[in-house]
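Two proteins follow. First one:
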Amino acid sequence: MTTAHITSESSSTHRGQFESRPLLVFWEMTKACGLACQHCRACAQLEPGPDELSTAEGFALIDGLAEIGRPRPILILTGGDCLQRDDIVEIARYAQSRLVPVAISPSVTSKLTSTLLDELRMCGVHSASLSLDGSNAVTHDTLRGIPGHYDATLDAIKLLKQHGYTTQINTTVMSSNLHELADIAVTMHDYGVDVWEVFFLISIGRGSEVLESSALENEDVCNFLVDASRYGFTVRTVEAPFFRRVAAQRKLQLDQETTFEHGALYDELHDRLIEKLGKPTAPVRAPSAATRDGKGIIFVATNGDIYPSGFMPYRLGNIREQKLIDVYRENPVLLAIRAATFEEPCGSCEFAQLCGGSRARAYAQSGNPLGADPGCLLVARARAL
């Protein structure tokens, strides 16, 4: 089997899957949050903004998702801190009545309580994600801006598991924590986390002041993440769709018993993982659904503005004026993103459908949502020629 065979096979499987409906709808319920994270996408603040969607407008958003029919998109309640909204249980209960699945992405604060988790479970919320950005208190607490937050996050993971939630941990990759990723993976294993979702930093919001990882480092991290997914938890990435390309290439190389190109960072992380957890015995758990910003994913901001994702501030409309599904289906930029009509070298890449590059990173770097993703090693090398 050739690489081209893998690429075309994966592309045909996923092409058109997200043309008429998104898989995930993110609703930024509020910008209010008690944390002060250095890399916050939302530039969260202590108080809610004056123009947040009301409860009734939230119900209308849910009605629009319900009208799409089966399979309905998953509504992810995020922020800021979604638990800062006093109506979150009411919102979840209404979504349950309309058969719209809901997941939550709260901050770890005093609002994350057993009582609230029980209430949300009764409303059909079964999945929750928390953020953990370091393997120790020094790194995590520095990034989150709250002393003691690392220990509180570990306690919160236990709390979610105790209440029967499918537990996802989000980790943002940046230059300051690259070398801790293996130890964070060990935490995923030891705490029985179901999904490790690894975010690759985009320089927006407060993250504009944080140093991103390089394309070569991204490639090594992706290869490491393929390894990490063999220790009992699923690994997904955000703003690193090239992870799917790396996973496909690794599978091909394994089938053909050939080695793969990698750098010193991969060797360091790989060796540390084996040192701590031993050799893996489980198969790779790295989903290949070919989503990207605007393809399978759509984001609704606190004031109703619609964006391809939370990391791509390219305004498409507002749900106070338009139906979300109409914007998703008809916006010309989203149509181009889903058709993979990108600038070179992304446009002619054999992995354009399977990967397609981070549209958010392309936009942040060039101002063009259809530009090439400089975080991908293939792009970096093509531009160096």
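Second one, unrelated to the first:
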Amino acid sequence: MTLIAILTGTLAAGIGSVWLAALLSFGVLARYTNHMLSLAAGALLATAFMHLLPEAFESQAGAQELFATLLVGLVFFFLLDKAELYHHGHEHHDPQGEDDAGHPHHHHHGHDHGQPARSGSWAVLTGDSVHAFGDGILIASAFVADMRLGVITALAVLAHEVPHHMGDLVVLRHTSGNRSMALIKVSLAGAVTALGGLVGFALVDMLHDWLPYFLVVASSSFVYVALADLIPQLQKRLTARETLAQIAWLGVGMALVMMVSGLAHSSH
């Protein structure tokens, strides 16, 4: 019975939050696509600095070890991004520079000023998967302790993941240019919550000590994507009104995550 409850709770939290985020990002807020990058950056930074890192540092793990994990995580996602960009460039590069008729090719992939950046998707998905795995362990631990606490925890996870997944969907939409593919990828990452729930149910005592490190690795991916991929796209010469709107949407992303995270903590 407990295992069924864990699977139901983790799937509802992991995938339900993605679909709810998609309804908002691609439905209600679709007309504000120009501002969604700002919201995404704010949501990812707030998730990392106001939710994941504080939770990790509240544990018994040493600060030096956690900061070292954060540093290694940032370098890892930088290298992952480099590998993705290299693969993308290698896959589409024509060494001859011309087609069969002898006309030169002009390939522009991703980082042209008029195009969205094509990096960051693997970092987001990896961070999402690690984060979802940690959420699954948390939900499983709560259900093992008390059924009612498990339900509250699953609902809290679902709620605080919505603004964060809105950011993820925007990032993946910009990297792939395809809403459906972005939704499928983030949903698959969200489904890792159920895997975390199963592992948590079997090894809850053993994995408890590793949870802070999962949280720090996930936060490193969100910080990297926000600062290396999203913020640079926002660094354009804009009018005062456009700049204020950009800052406002950045603040909205942060406020959403902090508000929902605060509600989740108070429910505990």
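SUMMARY FIELD: The CA atoms of residues 26 and 179 lie 8 Å apart. Confidence is low (pLDDT under 50) at residues 90-118.
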